[in-house]
């Protein structure tokens, strides 16, 4: 017999429920998120003891998530965001590795007591004759005019450089994934849904007749000896005119005794591809004229005529372009993190990233989401940027997840007199491990005028 929300299932003892919780805690879905594991374990214990109905957001933050005693639910939506993430993770778990588990666990919206439900017995039905129409979605192979990738022939050991091994097939995967997302837009929309908060965040794009371009960063690589397949990336250089002044590149040139160099933008990071796909899943059914391009090919005319979403480390409008914008930015991406240009009382002037790279890529970084007018003030530009891909991946997740979106919109409205600001910036604190975001918190928001 299936119980109602917040009731223990009749006929199932507490040991079976505890075993189900343990299965989820050790699943792949929660393996990389210690915050969600701790939260689920806490809510399960309180549900079993009968204390969950009395839980307050503050207690969940302190005891269930390890937040400091200074946590204030009025100004911090971390609990609501993480409970929403847990709800989504549980749904993802039961669609994959938990699809045959006997007990379904959920977190009802607006409550902290877990809901347990027995999985219905499968119903045997007679086989139906084949129906007309497509039975499956075939892989998409768009005709994108991209250069072939030359085979790698040699390598140069150096602790200061990154030799690229990937290829432009990542971009092909992106376009194929986007096309697949468009064909599955109805199914995707039913899963993700468009809550009022998602509508508020994305209204400038879904309510516009302008085409939308998603521009993904394609960083500059240097190819030594044209056709050799040996590439190098100095992450501080993204303009060919600056290559000659790079100490790392000059060191490799000297070591190789090779002065022949060519620019290459064959490669992009998985983070950009994954983020662009998430946007396509959400907006594909709402925007008909939706394209994806490389930032290096984006023209000024395109920036003026289209709505644009930018994803990557380098932010297109911060720098000389920002000076001509009709609004004044409050946060600025820098090499060390995010600079707070006009800190309020008690706010730091720099939100500094603190992380390690190889062999363990983990730590804390800050991501910045900026919604700005275009160069002529008649279109919308939104950027998702951070110093590492885990940062802007987390930012995209926050802006496409209904629960996270609610916390962000609530904070934007609370700091803007109750209305959704037309232009704004959102600062996110992202904890990550093995390059995967594990915890995302909305730190500050600013309305831009």
Detailed description of the structure:
By secondary structure, the chain is of the alpha+beta class. It has 3 domains: 14-118; 136-165 and 221-264, no CATH class; 169-218 and 268-447, no CATH class. Helix content is 33%, strand content 20%. The protein is built from 13 helices and 16 strands. The protein has helices at residues 14-25, 28-31, 34-49, 57-65, 78-95, 169-183, 185-192, 196-206, 247-256, 270-283, 300-305, 389-400, 402-414; strands at residues 103-106, 115-118, 212-216, 221-224, 230-232, 261-264, 290-294, 307-312, 331-334, 337-340, 350-352, 354-356, 362-373, 380-386, 424-433, 436-447. Strands 3, 7, 8, 12, 13, 14, 15 and 16 form an 8-stranded mixed β-sheet that branches. β9 (331-334) and β10 (337-340) form a beta hairpin. α3 packs across α5 (78-95) and α8 crosses α13 (402-414). The radius of gyration is 24 Å and the shape is globular. Residues 1-7 and 123-192 have low confidence and may be disordered.
Number of domains as seen in the coordinates: 3
Class per helix and strand makeup: alpha+beta
- Alpha carbon gyration radius: 24 Å
In DSSP terms, counting alpha (H) and pi (I) runs of 4 or more, how many helices? Answer: 13
Helix percentage range? 25-40%
Low-confidence stretches: 1-7, 123-192
Question: Topology of this structure?
Answer:
Elements: H1 14-25, H2 28-31, H3 34-49, H4 57-65, H5 78-95, E1 103-106, E2 115-118, H6 169-183, H7 185-192, H8 196-206, E3 212-216, E4 221-224, E5 230-232, H9 247-256, E6 261-264, H10 270-283, E7 290-294, H11 300-305, E8 307-312, E9 331-334, E10 337-340, E11 350-352, E12 354-356, E13 362-373, E14 380-386, H12 389-400, H13 402-414, E15 424-433, E16 436-447
Parallel strand pairs: 3-7, 3-8, 8-14
Antiparallel strand pairs: 1-2, 4-5, 4-6, 9-10, 10-11, 12-13, 13-14, 13-15, 15-16
Helix pairs in contact: 1-3, 3-4, 3-5, 5-13, 6-10, 8-13, 10-12, 12-13
